[in-house]
Amino acid sequence: MSKALLKRGSGAGRPRSQALDEAIIEAATQLIECMPYGEVTIESIALKAGVSKATIYRRWPNKSAITVEVLLRQSLQMQIPFEAVSYREHLVTGMQGLREILSGVFAEAIVAVIAETQNNEVLRKIFYQAFISRMQAIGEADLEKAIQLGEARGDITKGMIFDQLFGTFYYRLLVVHKSIDDDYIERMVDSVIRQIS
Amino acid sequence: MSKALLKRGSGAGRPRSQALDEAIIEAATQLIECMPYGEVTIESIALKAGVSKATIYRRWPNKSAITVEVLLRQSLQMQIPFEAVSYREHLVTGMQGLREILSGVFAEAIVAVIAETQNNEVLRKIFYQAFISRMQAIGEADLEKAIQLGEARGDITKGMIFDQLFGTFYYRLLVVHKSIDDDYIERMVDSVIRQIS
Amino acid sequence: MSKALLKRGSGAGRPRSQALDEAIIEAATQLIECMPYGEVTIESIALKAGVSKATIYRRWPNKSAITVEVLLRQSLQMQIPFEAVSYREHLVTGMQGLREILSGVFAEAIVAVIAETQNNEVLRKIFYQAFISRMQAIGEADLEKAIQLGEARGDITKGMIFDQLFGTFYYRLLVVHKSIDDDYIERMVDSVIRQIS
Amino acid sequence: MSKALLKRGSGAGRPRSQALDEAIIEAATQLIECMPYGEVTIESIALKAGVSKATIYRRWPNKSAITVEVLLRQSLQMQIPFEAVSYREHLVTGMQGLREILSGVFAEAIVAVIAETQNNEVLRKIFYQAFISRMQAIGEADLEKAIQLGEARGDITKGMIFDQLFGTFYYRLLVVHKSIDDDYIERMVDSVIRQIS
DNA sequence: CCCTAATCGAGACGGTACGTCTCGTCTTATC
DNA sequence: GATAAGACGAGACGTACCGTCTCGATTAGGG
After folding, report:
1. Quick one: which of A133, B32, B108, C142 has the fewest CB in 10 Å?
2. B128 and B180 housed in the same domain
């Protein structure tokens, strides 16, 4: 009896298979990549992963949650090291990465999740931490280094600058649906540099 | 005789009631205002407008299309005259208007439509013309006046500047979910002014 | 005033076009012939006849009524003269005609109308007069002649005999969906003859 | 292990609730009994049975299929034992039962199903086995006994006789809409007896 | 020869059932 | 306990047809 109580919540019963976690995420990723996001169904994910619906619902509360998971994995693959190059180079590279994501196959899923966050507090937090703050942090963390390296002033209002930088990309790629070329990025970054130095 | 020939094919049959157009739009507007967008249903709109479902589907192909119509009407009410004030004042007032819309009851609907436009070319065009280009035009039209008044240089790249301006608002209000105060707006506008003069 | 009253209902206004009556009936006939009865629509009839829906509804209250009209025309083409042959020959020929109708393209429409008559008193009367009583009358009228010719007794219960005769055909062709060959008909008729002589 | 393999594909997943089967049939039966068949809706059945539409469509493809099920249950309740009475008595009793069904609340549903069978092979077979052949079999099975008991000849053409017997009832009650009294039945049966002995 | 009232084609309209779909929960037997 | 399979309630979807209606245009026949 005490054994059961001790175990409860941690290791009781058959443990969840991590392989299934991976299978589900993988299936969801592929489906989001190759068909309109609106047509991706929990059922289709279950079918593709060779898993029952209940197995999915046991891990995530709904499609949006899975999608966030998928997006997080994708963004994790986009590493932006800040070494041996100037802050300007760093920003250019970073924004090129963001451009790829926002104009690629996952754009639709990203907007869908953003839409969902409008009246879903929980998802909003998850998405923010997994995606937004991660990017913002990359920019700001490196800004600190830049300040220390003397490439940037120390008295600027960080918030607004990155709102401008990221906002322009989200707006132009997801709302206006116009492309962004390297020249556009460099001018954007120069505009930022000008404001912080 | 020729009169009849000319009319044939265009005005034949019972004409659609404009009163019903209004009733439907009005009902949709109210429902979008007072409940989560996801819970607004074609059926609920029909019920509220005192209209049959077919009457709605005869005019719009789906919920998104009606929503664009609703948003257009809303944006039309947001008139921003440019008289007797400086271009700076004008921009500040305009952005305050955009802030109201993007942080008000219609924000959810706007994002939902943006999500829908990701893989719906037709809707994308309608939404762009009805909403995006209208705002962009307001900014740019007045910029022309500002240039003529000597308040702005003539050789700037308009596109990017307004991408920055609008993008920041969309991003901060709809994605990051942080508020924008008057001070923030003024600094944004000053930043724009600085770039164009 | 009295003038108007006198006219009302007779000749005032533009008279209905008989040509359209024919066009509608013809279109309905062809559609019933070549597609499942359930798929024949007032709208499809209107389209095929090059006529508006209102023009049809001005003449008949619903699809069943048109169908009865169509069936009547068909049955009128099936004339069974009783001349120079025995009553037995006459019955055989008549039943062969009924067989053709009940196993042809109009069978479906006939059953549909019969179904409709179950809770539609008005249609029931129309159908009865246009179709059932016409056939029954053919049998009975000739029975009178047969009695006078000495081919039949005068004291038989006519009702039941023809119920048997027609009923067998309706049941076997429309309900059981088995065919009826000439031998079957002759045995049926002989059975009837035996009972009346 | 082999047990599991054998079962797989047949008994996997949550089994369908038999209680719901009953609830649906019961609801359909009551609705067919108390309102015009044309007004009985899948939705009304679902509502009355306290069941979702999908649960009904999972079991039957459409209203006709449910109706056949209902009719089968009704006909099963009409048992006609053949004991201690003559074959003539038996036939009279049986036909009285058929009369009750064909002139009762289910007549409308029966004709509707018959209409549906005209261009629906699948339904035709189901209806035939569930309803027609069952009645035919009752008559014929007892005829065998009658032959063995010496009440009937052994060389008669069974098919036509029962076509006559049943056909007369269907035709008179469902098509001509005239009633059938006990005297009529006895004369019908006598006519049959005369033909088989 | 014009006037008038009904007809006509076209198609909008309210109503309503259809059969399908997805969601998120549940039940069962198996592992 | 987790798992696969899939039933289940709920309810929206978009389509289809019904029978009525509203238009403007068109006819005949009576004045």
Report:
1. A133
2. yes
For residue C58, say whether its CB is under 7 Å from any atom of strand E.
yes
Cα distances from B127 to residues A185, B67, B97, B106, B191, in angstroms, run 26, 10, 19, 14, 28
Interface check C105 vs D, CB under 8 A:
no
Domain limits for position D31:
16-59
Average pLDDT estimate for B171-175? 97
Q: How far is the CA of D124 from the C1' of E14 (A)?
A: 36
B6 in a domain, yes or no? no
Residue at minimum CA to C1' distance from nucleotide E4 = C13
Give residues 138 to 177 of C whose Cβ lies within 8 Å of D: 157, 160, 163-164, 166-172, 174-177
**Residue C150 to residues C2, C82, C138, C153, C197, Cα–Cα distance (Å):** 61, 15, 18, 7, 9
Q: Is A77's Cβ below 8 Å from some Cβ in B?
A: no
Residues C46 and C88 in one domain: no
pTM: 0.89
Shared-domain flag, residues B53 and B85: no
The pLDDT tens digits for A165-178 are 999 999 999 999 99
User: Which pLDDT score is estimated for B83?
Assistant: 62
Residue C168 pLDDT exceeds 70: yes
Buried b (16+ CB within 10 A) or exposed e, B32-69: beeeebeebeeeebbebbebeeebbeebbeebbbbbbb
Residue among A128, A115, A157 nearest A140 (CA): A157
CATH number of the domain that residue A132 is part of: 1.10.357.10
The shortest CB-CB distance from D164 to any of C108, C117, C168 is to C168
The predicted pLDDT at position A6 comes to: 40
Residue with tokens 């169908």: C67
CATH number of the domain residue D53 falls in: 1.10.10.60
Residue B60: partners with Cβ closer than 8 Å, 6 or more residues away: B66, B69
User: Any idea which nucleotide's C1' is nearest the CA of D8?
Assistant: F5
A155-159, C149-153, D23-27: range with highest mean pLDDT:
D23-27
Which of D111, D163, D166 has the CB atom closest to C114's CB atom? D111
Is residue D51 within 8 A of residue D23, CB to CB? The reply is yes
Q: What is the pLDDT of residue B79?
A: 63
Position C85 scores a pLDDT of 75
Identify which of A145-159, B16-30, B160-174 has the greatest average pLDDT: B16-30
Asked whether strand E has any atom less than 7 Å from the CB of C42, the reply is no
E28 C1': nearest CA residue? D14
